Task: inverse folding
C-alpha cells in the first residue's frame, strides 16, 4: 500500500465515521425504473389480430395558428381543460399492425430513427415497441401508407436509410402519389413552408426506396379484409380503412382528426394548420364519424392517446371519444 | 427404410401433388400472438415512482341486485351504453407499486393464484405483470392493504400458501382488522353470504401469514410520503391514500367506486351490492371526489380500466373520469 492510498483510505474511514446516520440516505430494495412499459396493445377483429404499436408522444411548442379558425386562447383552454400544458400541443402517434392470418400488415410507420434522435427518444419508438411485441420487421409482408406526412412515412426507412421492411410490399394511395410526387404541385407549394417541407420529405423517403411502391385506389380491398376508404382533406389522397372479419368491423380512421386530435373530436369544424384542404377535412371528419356512429363501428385512431381504440359518440355540435376498456386477455 | 415407411412417404407425396393450390392456406410470415401485452404502466409523482400493475379483467354474471337501489334494466343500460355486455358485470383490477426512493411499497395485491386458476388466467395476473415490470416480489419492503376484500388481500399469498412478499412488512387498517377479525362481528354476519365469505376469507389469508401484520390508523403518514385517509362505507375500515412528493399529489382512491366502478362515478348515489355500509359509501365517495376536484388532484383508481390514472370532474348530479394520456416516456 502506498502512503497516498493509505492516507486516502484512512480519510475515507474518518469521513464515514463522522457522517451522522441521518445523512445516510435510505434506499428502497429496488431502484426506480428509467423506462416506461413497452407501449403495445392487442385486440382481435374477428380472426384478424390488431397490434397497436405506439411511436411516442410529443409536447411541442404550438404556433398561434395551430387551429386556423380558432383563437390561440380558445385552443389553450381546451388543452388546459384536458390537463395538458395550455401553451403547447401534446400529440400521440400510434401506427398499427394487422395480422390477417395470411398477411402481416403494417399500417403507417411513425417518425422513424431521424426523429428519434431529434426528440431524444420521445418519438420514433415504433421499432422498439414492435420488437417488444415480438414482431420482426423482416416478417412484415405489406406496409400500407395512409398519406405522406412525416409521422406516417418516415419510419419506412431504417437508420441506414434503407427499407425498414426489406421483405414487404409498400402500398401507397395513388391520389397521394399523384399529388406529392408531382413537380407541378410541388412548385405551386413554394412559399408555404409546411407544404414545401412535406413535398421534399416525401421525395427523400421514396427516393431512398428507389420509388419501389405499389399504388392503390380508394374503395378497394387492398389486403385480406382491409378496404381503403377515401378520406381526403388532411391531404389530397388521405386514406382510412375498414378492417372486416366475419361480422366484426373496425374503422382505422388515421388522421381525420390529427395533431392533438381530441381538439377536433370536440370541435369538428376546427381546422388544423396541417390540413391541406381545410373545409374538405371538416366535411370528411363529420362524414366518417357519422358513418361510424350509424354502423356502430369501433375506431382505431392514430393520434388518440395510446392505445387509441375508441368509440365515437355525438356530443352537442361535436363528438366525444369513449376509450375501450383495456383488456388483459385476448 | 421399411416398406411401411416408404409407402407412407409415397402416399404423402401423392397427397401433396393432388391437393389443388387453392386449398393450401396462405400464412402470414408471423403467427398471431396468444397473449396480451404485459399490463403495467409507470408515472412519477414528484420523486415517487408509481407502477400500476394490472391483475386482470373479469366479465362475470351479474346478480339482479348488483346495484342495491337501481333496477336491473337501469344498470344494464349503463353497461350497454359503455359498449359492454348488458347482462354481465365487466370489472378491472389494478393494484399499484410506489417506489418512494427509500421504500418499495405495494398497495393491495389482487386476486392471487387461486383465482388465477378459477378464472383461467383472466385475473391473478399481478405477479406476472410485476415481473414484467422488472420488480422482484422479494424486494418489496412494505405491503399496504386498503381493506379486506379478496381482490385486495388474496394476492398476499403465493401458490404455496406462504407470503408472496417474504421480506415485506404487511400493513393493514386497524379499523379493518377490528371488524373482520372479530368473532362477534363474524357471528352477526351469519346468514349474509357475502359477509360470511369475506369474514372466512380474511381469516384464511391472515392465518396463513400467522397474523403477522402491522396495524395502522387513518390520517397518518404510514410510509414516506404516503398518508392514509379514512374512506369508510365500502368496508368499515376501507382506506384511501394521498401520495405526496414536493408539490405533486395523487389520490389513491381504492374502492370509493368499486366493482364496475364507472357505474358509480356516473351515478354516485348508486349502492354497490358489496358496499357494507351503503349510505356511508355514497357519502365518502362524494366527499373524496369533491376534495380531489377542489384540490385539482389526479386519481389512481383500482377498478378503473387499466391503467386507471384519471381525473374526476363534476357531470350533472354525478361525475366523470378523464383518463390521463398514456405517456411513452418517463
Result:
Amino acid at each position: 500500500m502506498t502512503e497516498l492510498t493509505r492516507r486516502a483510505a484512512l480519510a475515507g474511514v474518518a469521513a464515514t465515521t463522522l457522517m451522522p446516520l441521518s445523512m445516510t440516505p435510505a434506499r428502497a430494495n429496488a431502484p426506480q425504473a428509467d423506462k416506461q412499459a413497452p407501449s403495445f396493445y392487442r385486440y382481435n377483429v374477428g380472426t384478424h389480430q390488431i397490434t397497436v404499436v405506439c411511436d411516442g408522444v410529443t409536447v411541442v411548442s404550438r404556433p398561434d395558428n395551430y387551429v386556423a379558425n380558432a383563437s390561440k386562447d380558445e385552443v389553450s383552454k381546451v388543452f388546459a381543460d384536458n390537463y395538458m400544458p395550455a401553451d403547447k400541443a401534446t400529440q400521440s402517434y400510434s401506427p398499427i399492425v394487422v395480422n390477417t392470418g395470411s398477411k402481416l400488415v403494417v399500417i403507417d410507420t411513425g417518425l422513424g430513427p431521424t426523429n428519434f434522435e431529434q426528440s431524444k427518444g420521445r418519438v420514433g419508438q415504433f421499432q422498439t415497441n414492435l420488437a417488444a411485441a415480438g414482431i420482426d420487421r423482416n416478417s412484415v409482408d405489406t406496409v400500407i401508407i395512409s398519406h405522406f406526412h412525416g409521422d406516417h412515412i418516415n419510419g419506412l426507412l431504417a437508420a441506414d436509410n434503407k427499407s425498414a421492411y426489406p421483405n414487404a410490399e409498400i402500398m401507397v394511395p395513388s391520389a397521394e402519389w399523384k399529388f406529392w410526387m408531382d413537380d407541378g404541385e410541388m412548385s405551386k407549394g413554394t412559399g408555404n413552408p409546411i407544404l414545401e417541407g412535406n413535398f421534399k420529405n416525401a421525395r427523400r423517403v421514396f427516393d431512398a426506396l428507389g420509388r419501389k411502391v405499389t399504388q392503390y385506389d380508394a374503395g378497394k380491398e387492398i389486403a385480406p379484409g382491409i378496404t381503403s376508404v377515401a378520406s381526403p382533406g388532411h391531404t389530397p389522397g388521405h386514406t382510412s380503412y375498414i378492417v372486416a372479419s366475419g361480422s366484426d368491423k373496425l374503422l382505422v380512421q388515421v388522421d381525420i382528426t390529427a395533431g392533438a386530435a381530441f381538439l377536433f373530436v370536440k370541435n369538428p369544424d376546427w381546422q388544423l394548420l396541417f390540413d391541406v384542404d381545410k373545409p374538405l377535412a371538416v366535411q370528411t371528419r363529420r362524414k366518417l364519424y357519422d358513418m361510424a356512429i350509424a354502423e356502430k363501428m369501433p375506431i382505431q385512431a392514430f393520434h388518440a392517446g395510446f392505445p387509441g381504440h375508441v368509440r365515437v359518440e355525438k356530443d352537442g355540435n361535436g363528438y366525444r371519444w369513449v376509450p375501450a376498456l383495456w383488456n388483459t386477455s385476448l
Remarks:
- The first strand of chain A starts at residue 40 and ends at 45.
